[in-house]
Design a protein that fits this description.
The chain is of the alpha+beta class and 187 residues long. Helix content is 20%, strand content 41%.
Length: 187
Amino acid sequence: MKIFKYTLYIPIGLSIVITESSLKMEGPLGSIIIPLSTMDPYGIIFIKIINDNSKEQKYIEIIGNSSHSKIQSLFPSIISKFKQMIDGVSRGVFTSLELIGVGYRAQLESNFLDLKLGHSHPIQYPINPSMKIVQKKPTEIALYGIDKQYVRQVAADLRYFRPPEVYKGKGIRYHNECIKIKQGKKK
């Protein structure tokens, strides 16, 4: 029987609290609370916080038992989620979108983002207070938050309103995203 074990360093200034049902990570930018049942639905992972008093450092030790068949697929994703949480509360997550097309505009209001994307009506997207949206130009939107999954989900939701089309490239795309343009019909 193999035991999976991984140790992650916790930077100074971050605090982690583990209860029976949730995990809370606090940093200089905010806090993230995740239910342990969503991170580990089978209950096969053991999480332990190690305090090294000689170096004044903290570590998270993630231990999994190989007797369960799902451990090989679940263990790397849990490690990745912990790394994303540490990175999010210490530095934050940033994603940028571009609106390409004639008349495509975005305007930031107090509680929502107003998008004009060539539809007969403007689209109003509500803004969560845990995330910041910044506009450099009317055609560029920058999303910033501490939860990587949530920031990427909001970017995907906004992109869904007008995905880039393959013939002219018009639509909402991620910054520096390469769209392969198809050639139209020829006579």
